[in-house]
């Protein structure tokens, strides 16, 4: 049994969907679960629908219409027979979404978000499953929400592993080809939940873990894991073999090619992960597995943009010690703030944060009651794993550096 994951970029248009078949022809497709994300930038567009809807602005209907038209064009391009049932299925998914918003009484942003944003994956998998069936690649469409059970922390949910494991072991078709959605699950009340942005890689990891899969392949628009994001750095090199440790560190520091939660379930069962180009399925790509060299012997550059550098110092010149620290971190947890880098001295504490859920202003009110607070928004956090002096020199050139930290393997720097 293998698990594949196709991300939004790989299925952004009809040619992308046709390319899935080209990949399957090269790799084979028996005993395979394919996890698919929303097409192109659909999740961003659906996030926007929710924002506009919650402002009680009827403009959300136009936004939905645009998303529906984008998908209709793809379906029109893929299916010559305009009577094919896929047309009705897509229409009815969009109708469900509109009905849901029409009837909704909740004002809970994160709850509504999950109930709506999931349609990106429901629609993409319906189109792809129908298209593969139409082309003779017979498959089952699985609703991931019947398998992946989670808590009810909408938008940032945690998986209930034991129930999920039972569901997947009992219900999946172990021999054939199945298509399911990345990113989504459901809670005990069967409301939809989401695993966090870019969470489809993680879905692939969850299915692989529960199926004791032989491998996971994630198909990307890059040749594999590179030593830097090619959108940011001009010269990059492929990391052809890396350890689970290296992969989890790179993903944690922000190498967005792999969702950071993907690695742990794979590492626990020693399931190999391949990161490959969907345009060159026979290329070398990157393999992440046991027994790889621990260090890629190459500086790896990671940048996280749109961070906040927050500094706290005590109001009465007292030390910032364990009890203040634990209070500060429980506030970070409460406001779903993600922490990237920490540095402290006797009376001050600095931390580089990501405010994914837009709760920073609420957090500030709490912190200001206890500490002197300064902060810079919109800073970048740069990390070099396996740094060299040259790598640091070239990165620091022309940068306005606010904070720096060097450990044995890792250099980190925050700049404006
Ligand atoms: P998906 O289509 O699966 O959602 P993503 O866009 O999330 O794919 O991930 C692929 C992108 O990750 C690449 O286009 C690349 O710009 C970016 N990326 C960031 N860091 C790296 C890295 N170290 N190696 C390769 N790609 C990287
Ligand atoms: N569609 C979701 C997102 O864009 C999940 C994913 O693509 O991995 O965040
Ligand atoms: Mg993605």
From TrEMBL:
GO annotation (BP), single: homoserine biosynthetic process
Residues at which ATP binds: 5-8, 231
Keywords assigned by UniProt, alphabetized: Amino-acid biosynthesis, ATP-binding, Kinase, Nucleotide-binding, Transferase
Metabolic or biological pathway, per its Swiss-Prot or TrEMBL entry: Amino-acid biosynthesis; L-methionine biosynthesis via de novo pathway; L-homoserine from L-aspartate: step 1/3; Amino-acid biosynthesis; L-lysine biosynthesis via DAP pathway; (S)-tetrahydrodipicolinate from L-aspartate: step 1/4; Amino-acid biosynthesis; L-threonine biosynthesis; L-threonine from L-aspartate: step 1/5
Annotated GO CC locations: cytosol
InterPro entries registered for this protein in UniProt: AceGlu_kinase-like_sf, ACT-like_dom_sf, Asp/Glu/Uridylate_kinase, Asp_kin_monofn, Asp_kinase, AsparK_Bifunc_asparK/hSer_DH
Aspartate/glutamate/uridylate kinase domain sequence ranges: 2-277
Reaction(s) this enzyme catalyzes, per UniProt: L-aspartate + ATP = 4-phospho-L-aspartate + ADP
GO molecular function (one): aspartate kinase activity
Top-level class of the enzyme under EC nomenclature: transferase
Positions annotated to bind substrate: 43, 121
Its EC number(s): 2.7.2.4
Family listed: Belongs to the aspartokinase family.
NCBIfam families: asp_kinases
Designated name of the protein: Aspartokinase
């Amino acid at each position: 049994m293998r698990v594949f994951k196709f991300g939004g970029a790989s299925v952004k248009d009809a040619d992308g969907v046709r390319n899935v078949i080209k990949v399957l022809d090269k790799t084979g497709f028996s005993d395979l679960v394919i996890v698919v994300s929303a097409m192109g930038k659909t999740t961003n567009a659906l996030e926007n629908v929710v924002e506009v809807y919650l402002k009680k602005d009827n403009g959300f209907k136009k936004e939905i219409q645009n998303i529906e038209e984008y998908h209709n064009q793809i379906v029109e391009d893929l299916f010559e027979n305009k009577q094919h049932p896929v047309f009705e299925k897509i229409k009815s998914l969009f109708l469900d979404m509109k009905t849901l918003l029409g009837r909704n009484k909740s004002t809970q942003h994160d709850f509504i978000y999950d109930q709506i944003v999931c349609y990106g994956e429901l629609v993409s998998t319906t189109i792809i499953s129908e298209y593969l069936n139409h082309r003779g690649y017979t498959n089952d469409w699985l609703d991931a929400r019947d398998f992946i059970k989670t808590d009810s922390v909408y938008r940032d949910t945690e998986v209930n592993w034991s129930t999920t494991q039972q569901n997947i072991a009992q219900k999946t078709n172990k021999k054939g080809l199945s298509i399911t959605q990345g990113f989504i699950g459901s809670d005990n009340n069967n409301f939809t939940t989401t695993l966090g942005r870019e969470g489809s890689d993680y879905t692939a990891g969850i299915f692989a873990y529960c199926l004791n899969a032989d491998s996971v392949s994630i198909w990307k628009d890059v040749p594999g894991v590179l030593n830097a994001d090619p959108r940011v750095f001009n010269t990059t090199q492929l990391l052809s073999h890396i350890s689970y440790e290296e992969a989890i560190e790179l993903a944690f520091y922000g190498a967005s090619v792999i969702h950071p939660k993907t690695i742990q379930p794979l590492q626990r069962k020693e399931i190999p992960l391949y990161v490959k180009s969907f345009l060159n399925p026979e290329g070398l790509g990157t393999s992440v597995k046991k027994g790889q060299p621990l260090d890629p012997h190459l500086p790896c550059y990671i940048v996280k943009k749109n961070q906040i550098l927050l500094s706290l110092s005590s109001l009465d010149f007292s030390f910032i010690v364990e009890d203040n620290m634990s209070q500060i971190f429980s506030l970070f947890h409460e406001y779903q703030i993600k922490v990237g880098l920490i540095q402290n001295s006797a009376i001050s504490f600095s931390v580089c944060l990501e405010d994914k859920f837009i709760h920073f202003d609420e957090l500030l009110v709490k912190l200001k009651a206890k500490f002197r607070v300064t902060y810079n928004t919109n800073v970048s956090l740069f990390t070099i794993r396996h740094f060299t002096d040259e790598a640091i020199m070239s990165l620091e050139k022309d940068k306005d550096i606010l904070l720096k930290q060097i450990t044995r393997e890792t250099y980190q720097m925050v700049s404006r």
